[in-house]
Amino acid sequence: MKPALSFEAVYGSHNYNLNRPDSDVDMMYYYNPSFEDLYNGKQAEDNIQDGSTDRKHHDVRKLPNLFYKANVNFLEILYSCSVIHYDGLYDLLAAIREEISSMNIPYLYEGCMGMYKRNYRNFQRDSHYVSPEDFKNPELNPIRARKHASSAYRITDFMKRYANQGFKDFAKAIAYDPQLNTDKVFIDSYMAMRDGKYSYVEMCEILKDQETIAEELKGYFKESKVKEDVNRYVIELVEKHVREQLALELTK
């Protein structure tokens, strides 16, 4: 049995205003588990067959843990530029999105730095072609390298922007306004990096400078209190939603 959708939301560059006309639209789909899923101990997405890298499928039961671990890729769906609702769950979550986003700032630091380091390693790897066995399409390596570099650049800039606002405006920290001079400076630099207008050495210098700034913010992130009450509320909210959806399914 195919699970029922709860909501679908855009994630990625369109949410940051860093997309181009030819940019793919990345989507996340969230499903309510069926009685069969619960009975068989499965996640709702186990029933979805989709080989696309632009679409991600998740069970709504994962949301409390994903939010508590402050995974910025999942927090951003609460601020998505485009959402399609199939029930009321998304609106309930979006109503407290600032509280959810700032629920676990210490863990957000670790998650963002982990993303930075992973993208920086991948940038280094794809900047140095090794052999056809390692990379099937060597001509794509520079493009991949620049994509990793720009992702590392963006996540550290987000950390700086969010900290500068006292962790109070996630939407303003994650999305750039081309009408603001300070935002435009970053957009231009980000696009230049994607387009290969910086040398390898220049990109390394930019990213290492960003890393230093992010590391200097560690204490500020770490001193923030974890909001356990918000975590409990989100858990209860999602549990109640799942129970209600199951009740509807079983009465059909």
Automatic annotation (TrEMBL):
Keywords: Plasmid. It comes from the Bacteria. This is Nucleotidyltransferase. The lineage of its organism: Bacteria, Bacillati, Bacillota, Bacilli, Bacillales.
